[in-house]
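Please, structure for the following, as tokens.
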Amino acid sequence: MSIRINGENGVVCRVPDSMFGYFGWPSIARMDDGTLAVAVSGLRNRHICPWGKDTISFSHDGGGTWTQPVVAHDSPLDDRDAGLVYLGAKTLLLTWFTLDPRQFHELFRRDMTGAARAWMEAKLSAITDDTARANAGSWTRISFDGGETWSAPRPSPVTAPHGPIQLKNNTLMYAGKPFPPGDKRPMSQDVAVALSIDLGMTWKVIASVPCPPGFAAEQVHEPHLVELGDGTLLCALRVHEKDTAAVWMSRSTDRGFTWSEPYRLPCDGTPPHLLMHSSGRVVCVYGYRHEPYGQRALVSRDGLNWGEELILRDDGLDGDLGYPASVELEDGSICTIYYQRLPGDSQTSVLSTRWTLPEE
């Protein structure tokens, strides 16, 4: 059984009628002064294209209105999966990974026409092997002024859509797929867990998360972490099953050095994002890529027992949607952002839903 949430929907990033109006895979952070920041791989042409770049938008009214997206990072390659983490004192950490778009040249030739194809050919011809090697991998940039300026890119050993989390002791913990320098997106290794005590300047891999029983590493990716009040860590995993994709969960009670055998959450949908709410409940949001398409959530007190599925939105037009992420607002309500196509649009936008947890 599912419960429909009566939330307030809004628009974060939408650029209709543009060749570069596709936005996808967003993350959200809330700063000390209440400012919301959303990072997204935006100003693209489509789901896979040569033009992906990391953009940032801000809201100063709890997600009611948003600034126009500005580019925070744009490499010569396709920059994807923009993660964003607030570290306090106006400090933001931006994460992403890159794909060499030359590997999709024949796909682009087949699917693009006119101006888009001409722009694509010019973009790809400018990429050299040296350029690809210098920019391929998983990366971070840091801002100490609330996103106005950014440091030079720094490599990170793993990648995941929403980046790392900041633990209560201020250490950064990053669960993701290992992504050493190179020009191929790795899928064959287990999810790894890395720590940083210097704001992402350097990282130390301390553990790996086991695959669910009967699954291979290629079926498990796009994790996200949360720290519970007692220090227990949860790692939610995107797991591709035979006919669907689902969220599985692993636990650590020793600060991330060992992880339990994963267990399946009672839902179909991915990838997950976890939020520790001030009520003591854990909120897991995920995209739902079956009809009726949309965004959904589960809520738990302990990460083991989960309530009925909550439907945040079920008006998606197709399965190219999801990657939701949430922050808690000052009044205890939740702002969840995600990407989805609006009626009449040919490309996806970043949208939002402001909602309140049901009474227990």
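The longest helix spans residues 114-125. Residues 2-355 form a domain with the Neuraminidase fold (CATH 2.120.10.10).
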